[in-house]
Amino acid sequence: MLNDAQGFSRVFLATGYSDLRKGIDGLANIIQFQFELDPFQKDILFLFCGRRTDRLKGLVWEGDGFLLLYKRLNVGRFSWPRTAAEALEITPEQYGMLMQGLEIAAKKPIIETHPTKLC
Known about the structure:
This protein is an alpha+beta fold. Helix content is about 15%, strand content about 25%.
């Protein structure tokens, strides 16, 4: 289920560090009060990653209750964006890259510059 984003209309990452000791209610509170998003939207996956990047938690509202997902890798780590503690919406392609261990956010993004006229 977590390897392909099938069944999810949108995917949000909680960038930065999350406390994975939290359960459903704690993660739903983070979504609602810190990110100002609605955790009760159906088929939206919210992903959280702690300091150890070999495991993550996901939270999905299914209409009649929450589904709490937990994934721990045997080998390797997730390349999790560690910028500010914000909710980042990602595309299905970025989600696939994340599950493969690839970076989805450049550490030093390329900034487009406009050349100045010399004459």
